[in-house]
Amino acid sequence: MILEIQQLTYQYASRKTLCFPDIQLHAGEKILIVGPSGSGKSTFLNLLSGVLPSQDGSITLNGHNYKAQTRQQLDQLRANHIGIIFQSLNLIPYLSGFENAKLSLGFSEERRTNVSDISKSIMQLAEGLGLTSEILAKQPKAMSIGQQQRIAVIRALLGKPALILADEPTSALDPVATEQFMTELTRSIDPAKQAVIVVSHNPTLTPLFDRVVQIGEAT
Questions:
Q1: Domain chopping of the chain, boundaries
Q2: CB–CB of 79/111 below 8 Å?
Q3: Which CATH architecture has domain 3-214?
Q4: Which of 10, 87, 187, 189 could form a disulfide with 194 if both were Cys (CB 3.0 to 4.6 A apart)?
Q5: What is the per-residue pLDDT across 82-113, written as a single tens digit (0 to 9) for each?
Q6: Would you state the pLDDT for residue 173?
Q7: Tens of pLDDT along 132-153?
Q8: DSSP string over 192-212
Q9: Are 146 and 97 in contact (CB under 8 A)?
Q10: Which phi and psi (to 5°) does residue 178 adopt?
Q11: Helices marked H in the chain — which ranges?
């Protein structure tokens, strides 16, 4: 099992409490998280990534219980075991696509040891996602949104972190590009070692996932 979530809740200073479903996620699985605005989808991702400290309930990733970790240990756990595809992509504008893609290895020696040849690994992922070496040499401003998203995917997948988290990764794509992107993403993961959680408001993505988990209204 890669991830286990039990009785997880989060309460804001406003006293609004968000309650999240129990989840067991195994290698090779793809889960879609859906829910109305204000139900806590982004909060859920921040809890899973360790950015927000869990309050009640538990999150266990690859045998590491978040509550047993210090803040520094959580940061390292995230760097080693989680690849994040941000909605805003967070590419560095003055770096090339290739340089952006390899950034994740600079924060994790563990992921770095999983990559024997950085250039070869990036190119293999790039080819699977339909990117050429010419595109990798460009800065983000010279790429299309779809190309930028694929660079963000390579950065998240490089070094084979166990858990891939994606926040509305297809929000800027049309339906055809959305299906192509999600197909390419799922083809790029190692089903023996990795799993995917995607947060989206797009119901057309449902057939592309093994499970759909609904997050309810906040209380």
A1: 3-214
A2: yes
A3: 3-Layer(aba) Sandwich (3.40)
A4: 189
A5: 999 987 788 999 999 999 999 989 989 999 99
A6: 73
A7: 999 999 999 999 988 898 899 9
A8: TT-EEEEE-S-GGGGGGSSEE
A9: no
A10: -65, -50
A11: 41-48, 71-81, 97-101, 109-113, 118-128, 133-136, 145-157, 175-188
